[in-house]
Amino acid sequence: MNEGLRPADHQQGTGVLSPTSEVIEELRNGRMVVLVDAEDRENEGDL
């Protein structure tokens, strides 16, 4: 497991937004990411 990744804090209702470069690197390494849109739009995540 990548020690640099931080889990979302479900108690506080906050999550972690990663920089684009980090997301691309995770995808290159075969890892899954969740891409979310703005809360004022659909407020959903895509795998």
3D architecture notes:
- It is a single chain.
- The two termini are 19 Å apart.
- The chain has a two-stranded antiparallel ribbon with strand order 1-2.
- The chain has a domain at 18-47.
- The chain has one helix at 20-28, and strands at 35-36, 45-46.
- The model has no long low-confidence stretch (mean pLDDT 77).
- The protein has 1 helix and 2 strands.
- It has 47 residues and is of the alpha+beta class.
Count of DSSP strands: 2
* Class from helix and strand fractions: alpha+beta
Determine the mean pLDDT. 77
How much of the polypeptide forms β-strand, as a percent range?
Answer: 5-15%
Distance between the termini: 19 Å
Topology order in helix (H) and strand (E) letters: HEE
Helix content: 10-25%
Strand order of the largest sheet: 1-2
